[in-house]
Amino acid sequence: MELQVGSVAPAFSLPMAGGREISLASFAGRKVVLYFYPKDDTSGCTKEAQEFSALTAAFAAVDTEIIGLSPDSPASHGKFAGKYDLDLSLASDESKETLTAYGVWVEKSMYGRKYMGVERTTVLIGRDGKVVRVWPKVKVPGHAAEVLHAATAL
């Protein structure tokens, strides 16, 4: 299912490192950047997390929360965030229910082998809980700054 601009963002409540939980409902009235990435501690995902983390204060200044989401475990997220000193929330979706609801758990292909995985995608959710913009098949360099620009314009 492809997410449509103007549709209500699918609700979620997911575990994070340290036994904490994060839910979309807890950010009602704020803007949310939800970025989906394949795997902790891989080169592209690390670069993306570092770019978003470096802009955390700028996103906060425009009342926008950043949440990274992948199928990795909360423990993996904790190690990843600690290793790179990341200043953002990382949610774990081991069941892949939220990834599926947002349409980012897809069939991929590498060297002719088909497998299921996360399509690197970013979703900007407005204060009203509706999808404002979707960036599919994200290319990492400069992406976080582009998302910040869009969040600032809201």
What's this model, at a glance?
The chain is 29% helix and 29% strand.
Could you give the topology of this structure?
Layout lengths: L12 E3 L5 E3 L7 E6 L6 H12 L1 H6 L2 E7 L3 H11 L4 E4 L4 H5 L3 E6 L2 E6 L2 E5 L5 E5 L7 H11 L1
Parallel strand pairs: 3-4, 4-5
Antiparallel strand pairs: 1-2, 3-8, 6-7, 8-9
Could you walk me through the main structural features you see in this protein, from its secondary elements to its overall organization?
With 154 residues, the protein is α/β, with parallel strands linked by helices. It has a single domain, classed as 3-Layer(aba) Sandwich (Glutaredoxin), CATH 3.40.30. 29% of the residues lie in helices and 29% in strands. It contains 5 helices and 9 strands; from the N terminus they run βββααβαβαββββα. The protein has helices spanning 43-54, 56-61, 74-84, 97-101, 143-153; strands at residues 13-15, 21-23, 31-36, 64-70, 89-92, 105-110, 113-118, 121-125, 131-135. Strand 6 and strand 7 form a beta hairpin. The chain starts with 12 loop residues before the first strand and ends with a helix.
Low-confidence runs (pLDDT<50, min 5 residues)?
A: none
| SSE order | EEEHHEHEHEEEEH
Named CATH topology? Glutaredoxin
Specify the number of helices.
5
> What's the CATH superfamily, by name?
Glutaredoxin
